[in-house]
Design a protein that fits this description.
With 92 residues, this protein is of the alpha+beta class. Helices cover 38% and strands 23% of the residues. It has a domain at 5-67. Strand 2 (14-18) and strand 3 (21-25) form a beta hairpin.
């Protein structure tokens, strides 16, 4: 079992005085669940190591293989490719 990847731990809590509005929060603990997509990414970046870098590379390859990038060009790109430069204009 892997140990938790702690991203943020404030055991004393937090007390804010926002222009007279006092906000007090007890212990703050944020951990990354390596099984999830965002948790795995954050764990690779913050609690990394060589194994985590390999997992991040494998995740990037999987995303590329799924073809998440749009197959059609953006609206402006297609139009710009079809247009020819105007030849009747004189240079300034």
């Amino acid at each position: 079992m892997e140990e938790d990847c702690v991203i943020l731990d404030i055991p004393e809590g937090l007390r804010l005085n926002l222009l007279g509005l006092v906000v007090q929060i007890d212990r703050i603990l944020i951990t990354a669940d390596r099984a999830g997509l965002l948790g795995g990414l954050l764990a690779s970046l913050t609690c990394g190591g060589v194994g985590a870098a390999d997992q991040l590379d494998a995740l990037a390859q999987m995303v590329r293989a799924r073809g998440i990038a749009p197959e059609e060009p953006a609206q402006g790109e297609e139009q710009a490719a079809d247009e020819e430069p105007a030849q009747d204009e004189e240079p300034a």
